[in-house]
Amino acid sequence: QPNLLQKPNQQPTPHILNTKKTDKIQKDLQDESLDNLRVLVKKKYLNKKENMKLQKLVESVHKFERDELPYLTHSSKSLPDQRYQRYKLQKEIALLYKDKEVTKSKYEANFHLPDEKGNFGTVTDKLNKKGAEQWELLQLKQAAQNLSTDEIYVKGSDKYEYVFDKETVIDFTPDNENVDPGANVSDDSAGKQDLELPITKMKPQLLEAIDKNQVLIVVGETGSGKTTQLPQYLVLDRNWKVACTQPRRVAATSVAKRVSEEMNVELGQEVGYTIRFDDKSNEQTTVLKYVTDGMLLREFLADSKLLKYDCIMIDEAHERTLSTDVLLGLLKELLKIRPLTGDKGNGDEQLRPLRLIISSATMNASKFSEFFDGARLFNVPGRRFPVDIHYTLQPEANYIQAVLTTIFQIHLSQPVPGDILVFLTGQDEIEYLNSILQDINCKLQDTNCIPMLITPIYGNLPQDQQAEIFKPTPATHRKVVLATNIAETSLTINGIKYVIDPGFVKIKTFIPQTGMSQLSTVPCSKASVDQRAGRAGRVGPGKCFRIFTKWSYEHELELLPQPEISRTNISSVILLLMSLGVKNLLDFPLLDRPSIPQLSKGLENLYLLGGLNSKGQITHLGYIMNDFPCEPNFLKVLYVAADKFGVLEPVLTIVAMLHETQALFSNEKNLDKASMFPNVVSDHMLLLNIYNAWKENNCSKSWCVVNKIQSKTMSRVENIRKQLWRYCKNRSEIMDLNNKHGNNTVGSSPISLESCIIKSFISGFPNNIAIIGRNGQYKQQNNSNISMVLHPTSLISCRMKTAGMKPYKIILYHQLIMTSKEFMRDCTPVYKEEWLKEMVPQFFVS
Ligand code: ADP
Ligand code: MG
């Protein structure tokens, strides 16, 4: 067995920076901004001619960044890719020096490499000890390369052996240096433990505690049986009707399916689930319902006392989603109205008691107890084996590449059984890595290497494929699970022995100053990465490989994740609470309060959309918005489309499509979108055209394949569209408005149809308008702080590249994605400036 952690037995290769020792220069450029760095380099070490060349290099670095999404590293929080840019620049500059054959010493001494703790020391400090320069070159090489599998090659001709280019091996901290000791494992010995979940032993005590307490906080290791077992006890032993909330749709559906199997009932009858756009439950028969927290929130609208239920379980409460937080606030009030004993029964009506169980991973459990006036904490002792934690010795410039390498370092050196779980940030990353791994797996077929079973899991994955992750791994295979955060605590996957964790998570952040929401990939909290590491210790001792340094862990990561309520757009929550009759939003009990700017921007946004009037009272439109299963902005778009233009149907199609754009194309990066519909420029119109063409082709799968569209996504779109359509039909008011335009709608010619559609979207998304500035960058009106660029996948950007089309002055985008820049995704041109004032006069003043 080759030792996984063994360093490549290789002499440091000579390299452009590898010269004689130089004097140690004190100045540390680590905290210098990239711009300062450039200036410094220019001033100190380059003559005029070289300066110009450097200038060009810097420009080309910029250009590179524009075209490519950059790779992130754990580093300065404000500029996650700063170090990466630095690598790039260093490389170019190093080459410049090589060309010019000038003395390298000054340059060299001033560029710093991180040491094993992630600290930047001078190159010369580390030169001989660590072979750091070799590492740097490698980083530069990797960062500059496109992601590719080039590093992996087949050696020999008859007997294939898959090996790695030794240079790419990632160095990790050694075994036993950092160990998470796990929790009392000794209590039950092997064999038996697989049959019995930790919670089973605790059942009598647990039920007793539930009987005695109106609120109980159940804390336990992931996999102890909280989600699947506890609700069954309540249903079977207590005869209660139970709702159990989940922050994630996938968790709700997959757990419901599992529990229905365990109880031997048909899913959708006794045991069911409700998630947005998909309800498998039955009013009469369902006694245990798994429900997303957002959907339970909606149930409050129909029945503010939740009379259907005897017990509510708020699961995964530590996730602190916005909906969970609001639910806890609402339940806190509701529990007073439905107390355990009759002695508080004020007056005539005596309501059935309601119980609340909050279940949470160990992080911040005491906060829930405080919130519910010292409610009892019940600990389910878990079993968790020790996990060896490894850190990279240096930060990695490209974590996807590093993950890929690490997978193979494990796969080629560690015995089976022992499955690998990789935490990635989203569907795009997962699918990308999946395709590479599948490729390699194919090539490995005829070798003596164990085949891998690669199983992705993320929110949008079709249900039949979700089941794959739970299937036992055949003894001849190694399972590699590529998961989003969902595998952190929501889903328990058996058989995992190795966890690979780049330490990133994708979150949506609201910027109250501008009213914009953006998606960005940020470093996880310590609590999160610790949870992730724990996933390796369920079946036996495990190993966790963190693609970041120990220094990063200790100094750069936040302690706990930020609750969603403190970083999100709270418009829809304001609307919900107001329509539930909450008079004073500031008095509403919450674990953490939104900031005042957040609150006022939320109110302002609702006023802008017409959901609140100038007195801050909820309007008729506001009530409709609140009832609608999407963001209030969408309802506004639909309402205007119906009322003003009679184009409800096409707009509804686009709204449904916008819910699924992330997974629409099979290979979006290499797609020639421009040629699909030659006359279309707007992504919104593209979506409409795709949907219509799909329908015209009888929703054919082969049509999807030919056009590189994912047929499963289209089916989901169809489902969403049907539900939205049904919703509108039930709200006859919207249909009436639409029908008053009769058949001769304004949208009868393609051009006017497009303008009606764009105008409708302007009215619903006034904050998502970007106007081009002199430097060619887009900015929000009245706000010059944030500049935005078109996402490379947007049709406008494709056309600008291929057809040399000029940029549009005004763009409406649907999503803002923050990587190296603020990228606008799903964009449509706003052809006439007057449209802004016409649609949202209270916002766009000339
Ligand atoms: P907790 O909620 O405490 O994290 P769960 O109730 O989710 O624990 O899991 C308990 C056990 O049930 C675990 O051993 C897990 O592997 C198993 N389990 C849960 N869902 C499934 C499933 N869909 N298929 C197979 N096993 C499952
Ligand atoms: Mg659970």
Protein described:
The chain contains 30 helices and 26 strands. The longest helix has 20 residues, at 48-67. Helix 11 (293-302) packs across helix 12 and helix 22 (632-645) packs parallel to helix 27. It starts with 33 loop residues before the first helix and ends in a 7-residue tail after the last helix. With 846 residues, the chain is α/β, with parallel strands linked by helices. The protein has an eight-stranded mixed β-sheet, with helices on both faces. A seven-stranded mixed β-sheet has the order 5-14-21-18-15-17-16, with helices on both faces. The chain is globular, with a radius of gyration of 29 Å. 39% of the residues lie in helices and 16% in strands. Bound molecules: adenosine-5'-diphosphate and magnesium ion. Magnesium ion binds next to loops.
**Which whole number gives the mean pLDDT?**
79
Radius of gyration: 29 Å
* Range of strand content: 15-25%
Distance between the termini: 72 Å
Strand tally is 26
Number of helices: 30
Per the principal axes of the C-alpha atoms, what is the gross shape?
globular
Query: How do the strands of the widest beta sheet line up side by side?
Result: 9-8-10-7-11-12-6-13
Spans of 5+ residues with little confidence (pLDDT < 50)? 1-38, 40-45, 60-84, 97-165, 186-193
The hetero compounds bound to this protein are: adenosine-5'-diphosphate, magnesium ion
Structural class: alpha/beta
